[in-house]
Each structure stands twice: as C-alpha cells, then as structure tokens.
Design a protein that fits this description.
Helix content: 25-40%
Strand order of the largest sheet: 3-2-7
Strand content: 15-25%
Number of strands: 7
Length: 151
C-alpha cells in the first residue's frame, strides 16, 4: 500500500538504525503477482541479508516495531495488502518452530517472489530443512508459477 518501493526501502534502512544489524546485501526489487488473495495490486518484493547481534526473537520484535512505524495495521486480511511486510526467511541454518516464530519461513519454497531475490544474493545457500539450494527450489517451481518482474 502507498509508495510500495519507498516502504520497502524504509524497512531495510530502519533495521540498521538500532546498531544491532548491518546490511550485507540487497537484491534488486521486483513487482510480483499476488498469491492466495489475488484481488489486489502487485507487490514490491526484495530480499536482503544482514549480520545481526539480535537473537531471532529480538530480531522479530524489532521487525514488528518497524512495520508498525511504517503504518502497518495489526489486523489485516491474510495475504492482503499492507504497508510493509518483513519476514525472517532464515537465521543462519537455525530451525525454529515456536508459537511466535517459524524459521525457515514455512512457505518460502513455494513462492517465486521469495526465491528469485534470494537467488540474486546467494543461489547456493542450502535450505536447512529441505536440504536443497535456493536455485534448486526456484527451478522446481517451473516458469508459470508466479509472475516476477524487475522494477
């Protein structure tokens, strides 16, 4: 919602303001076709890699605060439009399954809009649960799974 590209940039930049995280790499930005709830504008997506002194729970808390500062509302339509949506896709090779946090992200291997930007950063990274590289997961989706267009 709003200036989608600027919202994404805001989220990435805000993560470094605490001094706990440093941006290591940022993928190109992509316009991506919505999945699940399709009656909405296309999204802007990217991936970025950070080095952080946060543990996963603290990082998740910081991300939630950033999303609220960006204007995200608490109760929105699942998979619907939102001001900003930051997800922790991986935390090194950790596997976390708690009530609040699931890492690796549980649906990322089904989503071209996640895998394409990750491949731009590190296509050889191995999913710690599926034991496949990001490139392998992207290739398994096939070319017609979802439209992803460079901005």
């Amino acid at each position: 919602m709003g200036d989608r590209l600027e919202n994404c940039r805001f989220g990435i930049e805000e993560l470094t303001h605490s001094g706990y995280s440093e941006i290591m790499a940022v993928s190109p930005f992509y316009m991506t076709e919505p999945v699940d709830f399709k009656d909405q504008e296309w999204f802007i997506n990217a991936a970025f890699k950070i080095r952080t002194r946060h543990d996963p729970d603290d990082l998740f808390g910081e991300i939630r605060r950033i999303q609220l500062r960006a204007g995200r509302k608490q109760n929105t339509v699942r998979f619907g439009p939102r001001m900003l949506d930051l997800d922790i896709l991986f935390f090194d090779d950790s596997i976390i399954d708690s009530e609040e946090l699931v890492i690796p992200h549980p649906r990322m291997h089904q989503r071209r809009f996640v895998l394409k930007p990750i491949c731009d950063i590190d296509e050889a990274f191995i999913h710690p649960v599926l034991k496949k590289t990001m490139r392998q997961l992207l290739d398994e989706l096939g070319k017609d799974s979802q439209k992803v267009v460079p901005c």
